[in-house]
């Protein structure tokens, strides 16, 4: 007799893993996880600020920082928070935690070709022509958007050097002292130790660059600001994230993750919002009627839309916006804002301190 799974989780990245991590809340249910790359996807890191709903992430995080900074050509803005630390979590660690105890879970290394619904049962055809069945589809796959949109794209290298040159107690969130000719460009520096760090060249633009462009930016940065000519590359990661408000999918699935609105459009941060989405899904019984809530408040999405218009119109002005943001918010306020938990006072502080002309132009565009 053909097994009918209770839940088929399609796409086992950050969101799919986070759903599977909480599957113990669904008692006596059978799960299948479907992803061609589930065992071969490259390890990478997730960054997030410690919030009440990220306790599980924090328990397994690799390292945290109470201090972080944003750097422009002229100044460095420093932040500190005792309560909302900045955390780093490795994909491999989260995967191991999410997939362990596999007695209720079947893992399938395939892509999905088609999904059809027959008599309230989903029929899932795989790329090897095998077919499996499920009562519910949990879809966390990303899809290509059929419109032009701003992207956050990056390539990062974890390096080790001979001397102790990095400040391991402060993470550099954005360093804009790099080439700005192709769009908004900054270095994200994660200091794991005094001689080991992730150096990531990150761009906000419509077009991605070839790998050599990012690598050259990293090399120039390390030479200019650390006088480095030699280092050992321990690992490399790259990616591209949509910076846009994504419409709610129109299907009969339980949609989670980036393509169901979990990502913060103005920053690309998603892992924290995925946890909030998954938490709401289980704790409020939304999983029963598939009523997935967007983890972002409407006012925050509205502010993000306006901000993205400014980014698209003037990249140099955008750097000034990030610096102004740093000057008017303390560490706790900054972490809350980036995590979608800003109160009205924080929002008003931001609105009144932003440059009026470009924001008004974007607002009425």
Can you describe what's shown?
- The chain is of the alpha/beta class.
- The chain folds into 3 domains: 4-66 and 91-143 and 245-289, FAD/NAD(P)-binding domain; 150-243, D-Amino Acid Oxidase, Chain A, domain 2, CATH 3.30.9; 298-363, no CATH class.
- The chain is built from 11 helices and 17 strands.
- The chain has helices spanning 14-21, 55-59, 91-99, 211-226, 271-283, 286-289, 298-313, 315-328, 331-338, 344-353, 356-363; strands at 4-10, 31-34, 45-49, 63-65, 67-71, 76-80, 86-90, 105-108, 112-118, 121-126, 131-139, 150-160, 170-175, 184-193, 196-205, 232-243, 254-255.
- The strands form 3 sheets. Strands 1, 2, 8, 9, 10, 11 and 17 form a 7-stranded mixed sheet that branches. Strands 6-5-13-14-15-12-16 form a 7-stranded mixed sheet, with helices on both faces. A 3-stranded antiparallel sheet has the order 3-7-4.
- Helix 1 (14-21) links the parallel strand 1 and strand 2 (31-34).
- The longest helix has 16 residues, at 211-226.
- The mean pLDDT is 90.
Write the layout of secondary structure elements.
Layout: E1 4-10, H1 14-21, E2 31-34, E3 45-49, H2 55-59, E4 63-65, E5 67-71, E6 76-80, E7 86-90, H3 91-99, E8 105-108, E9 112-118, E10 121-126, E11 131-139, E12 150-160, E13 170-175, E14 184-193, E15 196-205, H4 211-226, E16 232-243, E17 254-255, H5 271-283, H6 286-289, H7 298-313, H8 315-328, H9 331-338, H10 344-353, H11 356-363
Parallel strand pairs: 1-2, 1-11, 2-8, 5-13, 11-17
Antiparallel strand pairs: 3-7, 4-7, 5-6, 9-10, 10-11, 12-15, 12-16, 13-14, 14-15
